[in-house]
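Narrative of activities, Objective 1.

The group set out to show that a structural description can be obtained from nothing but a protein's sequence at a throughput compatible with the screening campaign. Below is one input-output pair from the validation batch, recorded exactly as produced.
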Amino acid sequence: MFRKKEKPYIRFRYRKDHELIPRPMRASKSLPDWFKSLARRPKGAEPHEPQTVKRCVPVLDAASNGYYIPAWCDLR
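Output recorded for this entry:
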């Protein structure tokens, strides 16, 4: 009557002969260092003045949900 629900999951396929290509990683585990070290408010800012992007919840959600798939080469 009540079946145990399975948790949804994502499976990435990976070929053994492509071992030099970086694997996908969780976005929450790989936030950029500049974002982690960013202050919530600029130095000397008043409470009513605009704040940095770190206080914006949609930006944090977009940066920390999902997966990053690193590029296999440098892009310019």
